[in-house]
Amino acid sequence: MFTERDLSQLVEFRSEGMPVLSLYLNVDPTQQTTDQYKLTLRSLLKEASAEADKADIEAVERYFDFEYDWQGKGVVVFSCQDADFWRSYSLAVPVHNYAYVSHRPFIKPLTDVLDAYGRYGVILVDSEGSRMFLFNLGELEEATGTLGEEVRRTKHGGASGVAGMRGGVTATTARRGEAVVLRNLKEVAEGTEAFCERYGCRRLVVGGTEANVSQFLDILPKATHAKVVGSFTIDPDAPVGDVQARSMELIEDVAKRRETDLVQEAISGWKRGSGGVAGLADTLVALQEHRAGMLLVAAGYEASGFRCQDCRYLILSERDECPLCGGSIEPVDDLVETMTHRALEQGTEVEIVRGSEELEAAGSVGALLRY
Description:
By secondary structure, this protein is α+β, with helices and mostly antiparallel strands.
């Protein structure tokens, strides 16, 4: 299971000039056969062989020949044998086929995957209790549940009727049942708050009947309610696979809407001269001045540039020396990947934006500013 801790380790690793082979392979069994994916793998390694170290190519080949079980939908491998560095991750979500050789791991596709499928909680509520799930990158990490005993006995073990009362239920009994339901939902709300704190849920999805979901959201603590990104109607006893599929669909829709809002906010700020920037030049300046609060990058966008070998200052055009320290300048094949690393090192959030014509028209990269 790939975690944010793994991402931090990849960001921190530097090979001191030795090449790092980064490989992404889509192995979704619904799209192609294992043999077809092996052909794709060989093609990717052949393309990378001109720049990659032979030992890294061989290490990847050994992994797929003898270790990888061809399960899941995506696999990511990083290898730098000269530095005794190896990382492999099998993912339950697909990735785009890619091979890249540089002095550090190529992580931009992983930030894209984390953005789309990262950790979120699902709470299924009904009048008796709840089921709680933690999903991360398409996999179930945790599951728990509770049941309100008094409601269960009222529904399944109580008397079927009282003489003279329509439907066999007195007003007092009905009110008592409503009180028990409310108490159970409050307990679920408290449990949800504890669940989020324990597992670090940044996003929540709530499922159940419309009535139960609505009542539950009304009593959910404000801080926890702020994590809720959407809700859907589902049987609380639905199979885990159904819960996962329905919630992931909702999460993806929410992510697309969020990306649209962030892009519009950044471009609006850029146009009015405050709060946002767009285009490679302005975004690079904001990032290096530590003013970028969130970096927005169009998926698949690449650009070349230059970097000072001494102070690591980034520039777009080649110069004889660094404008800051006078150090030597070296070319950077993928400046956007370098910017992504720089943002993560600074603690700046990175948002990979998919299919935004507005962002692409503004230069395919932008940022929301801290000041």
